[in-house]
Design goal:
Layout lengths: L14 H9 L5 E4 L2 H9 L4 E3 L7 E5 L9 H9 L3 H8 L20 H6 L5 H13 L5 E7 L2 H15 L4 E7 L1 H9 L6 E5 L9 H6 L13 H12 L3 H18 L2 E5 L4 E4 L3 E2 L15 E2 L2
Parallel strand pairs: 4-5, 4-6
Antiparallel strand pairs: 1-8, 2-8, 3-6, 3-7, 9-10
Helix pairs in contact: 3-6, 10-11
């Protein structure tokens, strides 16, 4: 059988450097994180792309434990203040799959009720919510944290303009990926922060990690005891109909709470040179390297 002599992993956090490395043949495979890499890979006949739409999303974390996003009005204002048509046109080349919750539109866990609970774009309502919050003594100046990759900088500039239109002053803070993960997200040292996630094959453990009060990726400190109980029950039950019902309720309740600010489905992909064979992966990009080989 064909086999590999070994695997060499290279940390390449910069988006452009990572994509250039697969494009020029320095590496055989990359884990791509962004929409820009996915589209470029799909358009390149010298590359093969593994991707499948699923659950999970790109979103902004809102810190529920700090002002102003410990107030539902400000969380709602941010979501209502983002023009998704403009976002798709300027940041996603018109090819953005919108998100109105953690589950995909065709998921059995997604319901019309959960979608209806997600705030629609309404800049006038967003302005009113911000004005009300400020009138009550709150500040509408917000620190926005992001990685410093070019596409994230562009997204930040877009969000800065969108928030200014509704009365929120967004102050960008950029970090390299390692610093962003350790010093910002894991430390909870942010007010509003960008994040890339999904697609995911199944709700567990990803949705539990994001929305449970003790979840490993619940960096914003979202907490709802009812959601915790439903997540725990959904993870333990052997009744499939009950599991579906519970996850539907999890999405509905967390949408009502605005746990995070969803805007797009996720675009995590695996991009390889054509001679890389035997790729077996989950939608999350997790791979079984034992089956992988090079046709050289």
């Amino acid at each position: 059988m064909p086999y590999l002599d070994g695997l060499e992993f290279r940390p390449l956090p910069d988006t452009e450097t990572r994509y250039a490395s697969i494009e020029n043949g320095d590496v055989d495979l990359i884990f791509a994180g962004f929409h820009t890499e996915l589209l470029r890979g799909l358009a390149d006949p010298n590359l093969k792309v593994y991707f499948g739409s699923g659950n999970g999303a790109e979103y902004v974390y809102m810190n529920h434990e700090k002002a102003p996003f410990d107030d539902h009005r400000m969380r709602e204002a941010v979501v209502r203040g983002i023009n998704l048509d403009a976002l798709a046109a300027t940041q996603y080349k018109g090819q953005m799959e919108r998100a109105a919750g953690w589950f995909g539109a065709d998921s059995e866990y997604h319901t019309p009720e959960a979608e209806a609970a997600w705030p629609a774009y309404d800049p006038e309502q967003a302005k009113a919510l911000v004005a009300e919050y400020v009138a009550d003594g709150g500040s509408a100046t917000v620190q926005y944290s992001s990685t410093n990759s070019p596409n994230r900088v562009s997204l930040t500039e877009f969000l800065q303009a969108q928030m200014a239109a509704i009365g929120i002053t967004l102050e960008p803070h950029f970090y390299d990926l390692a610093q962003y993960t350790s010093s910002v997200m894991l430390a909870g040292d942010f007010q509003l922060a960008g994040w890339v996630g999904g697609p995911n094959d199944a709700p567990y453990p990803a949705v539990h990690n994001l929305l449970h009060s003790a979840g490993r990726s619940n960096y914003g400190g979202y907490s709802n005891p009812d959601v915790d109980a439903m997540l725990e029950h959904a993870a333990a039950t052997t009744d499939e109909a009950e599991r579906i019902r519970l996850y539907q309720q999890v999405e509905l309740r967390s949408n009502q709470d605005i746990a995070v600010g969803y805007y797009s489905r996720g675009y995590l992909s695996t991009i390889v040179k054509p001679e890389v064979k035997g790729v077996v992966r989950y939608l999350t990009r997790d791979m079984f390297f034992a089956t992988t080989w090079l046709d050289r």
